[in-house]
Amino acid sequence: MRILEEAAGRLTGRFGPSVVVTGAEARPYAGDMMYRATQAAVCVFRPDSTRMLSDGLKALADLDLDFVPRGGGSGLAGGATPDGTRASIIVSTERMRAIRRIDPRGRLMVAEAGVVLAEAQQAALEAGLQLGLTHGGAGSASLGGSISTNAGGANVLRYGMARDQLLGLEAVLPCGTVIGQASELWKDNTGYNLAQLIAGAEGTLAFVTAVTLKLRAGAKDRQAALFAVSSPAAALDLLALSHETLGEAICAAELMSGDAVDFAARMDCAGSPLEDRHDWLLLIEAEATSRFFDLAGGFEALLEEAFEQELVHDGVLAQSEAQRLGLWHLREGVAEAMDLHRGPILRTDCSVPVEAVPKFVAGVAEGTAAKAPEAFAAFFGHLGDGNIHVNFLPRPDIAPAGLPGALSLMVEDVARGLSGSVSAEHGIGLHKRDALARMKPAAELSLMARIKAAFDPGGRLNPGKIFSAPTGAADKEGSE
Q1: Which CATH number fits domain 221-340: 3.20.20.70, 3.30.70.2190, 3.40.50.1000, 2.30.40.10?
Q2: CA distance 52 to 176
Q3: In what order do the strands lie in the sheet with 314-317?
Q4: SS3 state of residue 58
Q5: Which of 244, 249, 369, 472 has a CA between 20 and 30 Å from the CA of residue 4?
Q6: Where is the FAD-binding PCMH-type domain (predicted)?
């Protein structure tokens, strides 16, 4: 497209050829793990600083262009995919990789948006601290993307979502104006918290360029155990006992159905260390940040009490770091199996109040039997925060051409009926726009649209995400 050629020429002339990617080399930038754009022309702008991004946006201000922020491309809802309504510049933060400052006494890190989450985690560990955010995409997800999508993960139970790690944020408006200074203040009550508003906005309000993140005390010990339970209700009883025994030390409680574990084994991704097959498994992990806390003793007491109360059928307590990692290999292997599956699959990301998890599972199972007897629902996810992922797969003895999309709608309806959410941690992006419109009252959607207009009056920043109807410009390679 001629307008993209003009934009690429201006950026190259101003900053040099390294800042622009076009043609076939730009293709990998045009989407995330689930969605890919179909338009023929793609132009990528790769600034290496906040100043360069600001100047670049100002240099393109008179062109009829949209801008699509992109982090590590690990999203699952199409949030980094151009919607095709107008010519788009993809703005990648991959060159903004500086960790500007780590303050061990203030327990904070200031880092640029393109820093990969795993790199930030390692830097915190080297300072004797830890970053409270971790999730399955840590090896590729950027800090800017994680904050922009308010990413979740396995330890939300203890540390919260991505925005709960945020102290301050530096960003650039689509007009090129820089706002925020990645503040290092733990307390600042001076009006609206714009950083928290931009966090979770999925790149529709501003470009995140740097963040100040809270750091936590480093773990002195970690312990994990895998329990076999009869049902999600029994898993909740066990989690309650775990809280009573281990208190705030618990950082993860991951529930897996027997069908999900069986599928991971069939895909050669992982297998259960327990001798027998069980309908439900619960992985509980806790960490001690003080050398005076007897975490191993606490877990032994938990295991003994759980058997005495007949809450569990079987269980194994990790006796070494290698065994602890082996238990996590099972949990991660379940998710990996879903990623490796090349046949029909439908994925969901809903949440319900924690106490409603058993009703959620039962409702989804009932709906699956009614709407798609050729499929089975594999349940796995974060019991402690009510975010149980449901992946639908063909039954092993059946090979359907596809799975009915009505299954996703059914899961969302079950969640909403239990006062839940249609998106727990993956965001809205392209994929959940219709679901959001069903879930949110009109007054709230109108207010969100007005906030968007205040930040981006021209509607140029990541259009088609969250609000507008599908345009047909993006091909869905999967669903989440």
Answers
A1: 3.30.70.2190
A2: 10
A3: 314-317, 221-229, 280-288, 250-257, 375-382, 387-394, 346-347
A4: helix
A5: 472
A6: 35-218
Rounded distance, CA 349 to CA 343, Å? 20
The pLDDT of 315-343, averaged and rounded, is: 94
By the 8 A CB rule, do 396 and 266 touch?
Answer: yes
In this prediction, residue 37 carries a pLDDT of 82
| Cα radius of gyration rounded to whole Å, the chain | 23
Distance from C-alpha of 109 to C-alpha of 157, rounded to nearest angstrom: 22
Cα separation values, 29 from 144, 145, 282, Å: 16, 14, 37
How far is the C-alpha of 464 from the C-alpha of 42, rounded, in Å? 17
- Mind listing the pLDDT tens digit for each residue in 371-428? 999 999 999 999 999 999 999 999 887 766 678 889 999 999 999 999 999 999 999 9
Residue ranges of the chain that CATH labels 3.30.465.10? 99-217
CATH 3.30.43.10 spans which residues of the chain?
Answer: 2-95+454-476
Long-range contacts of 132-135 (CB under 8 A, 24+ apart): 132/158, 132/159, 132/160, 132/164, 132/165, 132/214, 132/216, 133/159, 133/162, 133/165, 133/213, 135/425
Match domain 2-95+454-476 to its CATH number in 3.30.43.10, 3.60.15.10, 2.40.110.10, 3.90.550.10: 3.30.43.10
Q: How confident is the model at residue 328 (pLDDT cuts 50, 70, 90)?
A: very high
**Domain 346-426 CATH class label:** alpha beta
- Which CATH number does 99-217 carry? 3.30.465.10
Residues spanned by CATH 3.30.70.2190 within the chain? Answer: 221-340
Phi/psi for 98 (5° steps) reads: -85, 135
pLDDT digits (tens, 9 = 90+) for 123-163: 999 999 999 999 989 999 999 999 999 999 999 999 999 99
* Sign of the dihedral through C-alpha 450, 453, 459, 464: negative
Altogether, the residues listed in the chain come to a count of 480
The SS3 of residue 361 is: helix
Euclidean distance between CA atoms 436 and 469, whole angstroms: 11
According to DSSP, the β-strands at 129-131 and 99-103 are unpaired
Instruction: State how far the alpha carbon of 140 is from the alpha carbons of 70, 91, 208, 426, in Å.
Output: 12, 17, 17, 15
